[in-house]
Design a protein that fits this description.
single chain; alpha+beta; Nuclear Transport Factor 2, Chain: A; 6-stranded mixed sheet; 6 strands; 34% helix; 47% strand
Length: 154
């Protein structure tokens, strides 16, 4: 039987991930990730995922390089199905809806699910693999490029 404390810690990890992005707390977002993380956003980007892990802070820089260009964002993560496989390994699937706002009439929404892996080292759970499976989007996807340009200009 799964230790509920581990289950809760993995659930909280997912919430801290979304909160750190939306509040622009980049150090907190770095703390969510293991030192290296496998990232697969291929369903969103259209580019194949790298088989090689990246350093957590490097991935946070990629995220920040777009998110900082938006006026506001809101990442809603729900319907978690968490499996704690061992004292050091867990996986979860959860729905995600991410709102990206430039202004009241300029926005981009994207939705789908995460299939993530977490590892526990020294009593702390962190994301070691993150896979986003996009199933829909709405609004102006071109705002992602604009946000990236704005973030680089700051």
């Amino acid at each position: 039987m799964t230790d509920f404390a581990d289950w809760q810690a993995v659930y909280d990890l997912s919430l801290r991930y979304a909160e750190a992005i939306d509040r622009r707390r980049w150090d907190d977002l770095c703390d969510v990730f293991a030192p290296t993380v496998r990232v697969d956003f291929s369903s969103f980007s259209g580019a194949p995922a790298s088989p090689d892990p990246v350093e957590g802070p490097a991935w946070v820089s990629v995220v920040r390089g777009t998110i900082d260009g938006f006026v506001s964002t809101q990442h809603l993560i729900a319907n978690h199905r968490i499996t704690v496989e061992s004292p050091t390994t867990a996986r979860y699937t959860a729905y995600v809806q991410a709102q990206h706002w430039m202004s009241r009439d300029r926005w981009y929404l994207v939705g789908g699910s995460y299939d993530n892996e977490a590892t526990c080292t020294d009593g702390r759970w962190r994301l070691s693999a993150i896979t986003f499976n996009q199933t829909w989007d709405a609004g102006d996807r071109g705002l992602l490029r604009e946000a990236g340009r704005l973030a680089r200009g700051r």
